[in-house]
User: Which sequence fits this backbone?
């Protein structure tokens, strides 16, 4: 019988349950009581709840087998309502080595060299950072009466605020008292009635120093930041009709295009921030409308025909009673599609269920993990068979003993049966459940590579001829 792998999650351990994912629905088709038989022959009574898509009553099994998060259950159907369950406990990661103290290297910081009520001169200076320790507060130097009176006058008239950057140890800076010429800092704003470039809201603007009086020392570039309230930029000319696409909406289109390329959809841009994923599968085809913003829900493109409609949003900003595709889930789906092949057939159940969020993406991750685990088991069997010479007899019990708990009997039988058929033809069944290894695994892989290369050379011209048609 075919075996199914299930990865244990934290909610499973907390509830003593098993979640009925899409690929498990055929394994548990009927609701009601069932029995799981573990490796020791002990029976565990469970309850299949198809309404909540759960199998309850596995707490005793999890406790007896000392299972944790990401451990694996291998389920094999023995009879209706009776299942064989095997467990694979993953080894714990080794303890990380203790961190070594990295010697502190000098770093360059900006140090205030001279300061006036309106301007501070800042220079770059190399400072060796000190180890974190309690340092006594440094005494604040007394200010001259002129400086206090100047600061009092500066407080009465509004001036642009200047960002002050102090070093960790300002005592090492040599300060040369100078009396600079009066300097007024004016932001580079356009004069009234003339053309110019406005200062962006919340940003830092270039500063044009205006020197009055006698000539002063060469001017230095100052680190000045103007704090201005956020403003909505005025659009020049007539206001354009239609929704304004945000930067998040523009960023979502490349991700949807990547998902379509990996999974086999055809992406169609309908305008106004609405895109359509078309699964062109004949009678099994369907389409999904994706609105990249809430403003796109008011456009005529949102009224186009489609089987499913979702709003692209975030996990925290999902509106109620609206089918959604979260950006976090979209990123996870792209990552899963890079690991294992996903198709519109695999994803249709998730569109049909309504919203696709991180919980749905976790279900897809378990499906991908199952694919990768089956591929890993196949590779494990090939590597073990490579230790035998060609034209030797393969004993299934002996091979299973060498494989250990990495591959169970059901998986091993399916893999050996696959190796007896084309294009492998590596094994020949013998009476008594044994096999003849017709060719060594290294030679087998070389023959498969040559076969694949020959087919690839014949496929490429056909693909080029199909493009103009």
Assistant:
């Amino acid at each position: 019988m075919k075996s199914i792998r299930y990865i244990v999650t934290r909610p499973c351990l907390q509830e003593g349950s098993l979640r009925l994912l899409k690929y498990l629905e055929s394994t548990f088709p009927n609701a009601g009581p069932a029995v799981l038989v573990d490796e020791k022959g002990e029976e565990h009574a469970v309850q299949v709840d198809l309404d909540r898509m759960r199998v309850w009553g596995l707490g005793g099994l999890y406790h007896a087998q000392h299972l944790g998060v990401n451990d694996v259950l291998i389920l094999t159907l023995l009879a209706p309502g009776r299942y064989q369950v095997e467990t694979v406990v993953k080894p714990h990661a080794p303890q990380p080595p203790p961190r070594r103290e990295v010697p502190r290297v000098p770093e360059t910081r900006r140090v205030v060299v001279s300061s006036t009520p309106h301007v501070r001169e800042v220079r770059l200076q190399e400072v060796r950072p000190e180890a974190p320790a309690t340092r006594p507060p440094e005494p604040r130097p007394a200010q001259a009466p002129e400086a206090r009176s100047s600061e009092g006058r500066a407080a009465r008239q509004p001036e642009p605020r200047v960002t002050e950057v102090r070093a960790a140890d300002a005592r090492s800076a040599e300060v040369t008292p100078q009396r600079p010429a009066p300097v007024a800092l004016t932001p580079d704003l356009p004069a009234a009635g003339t053309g110019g470039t406005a200062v962006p809201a919340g940003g830092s603007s270039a500063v044009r120093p205006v020197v009055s009086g006698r000539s002063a020392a060469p001017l230095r570039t100052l680190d000045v930041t103007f704090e201005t309230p956020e403003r909505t930029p005025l659009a020049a000319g007539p206001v354009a009709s239609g929704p304004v696409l945000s930067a998040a909406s523009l960023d979502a289109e490349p991700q949807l295009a990547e998902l379509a390329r990996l999974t086999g959809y055809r992406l169609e841009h309908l305008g106004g921030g609405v895109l359509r994923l078309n699964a062109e599968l004949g009678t099994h085809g369907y389409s999904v409308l994706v609105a990249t913003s809430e403003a796109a829900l008011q456009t005529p493109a949102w009224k186009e025909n489609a089987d499913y409609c979702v709003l692209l949003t975030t996990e925290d900003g999902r509106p109620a009673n609206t089918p959604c595709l979260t950006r976090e889930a979209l990123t996870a789906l792209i990552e899963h599609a890079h690991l294992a092949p996903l198709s519109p057939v695999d994803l249709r159940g998730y569109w049909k269920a309504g919203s696709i969020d991180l919980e749905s993406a976790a279900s897809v991750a378990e499906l991908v993990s199952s694919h990768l685990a089956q591929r890993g088991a196949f590779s494990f069997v090939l590597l073990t068979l490579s230790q035998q010479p060609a034209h030797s007899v393969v004993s299934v019990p002996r091979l299973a003993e060498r494989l250990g708990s990495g591959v169970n009997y059901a998986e091993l039988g399916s893999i050996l049966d696959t190796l007896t058929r084309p294009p492998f033809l590596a094994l020949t069944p013998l009476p008594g459940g044994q096999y003849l290894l017709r060719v060594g695994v290294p030679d087998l892989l070389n023959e498969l590579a040559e076969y694949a290369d020959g087919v690839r050379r014949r496929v490429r011209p056909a693909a080029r001829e199909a493009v103009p048609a």
About this structure: The two ends are 46 Å apart (CA to CA). Residues 358-385 form the longest helix (28 residues).
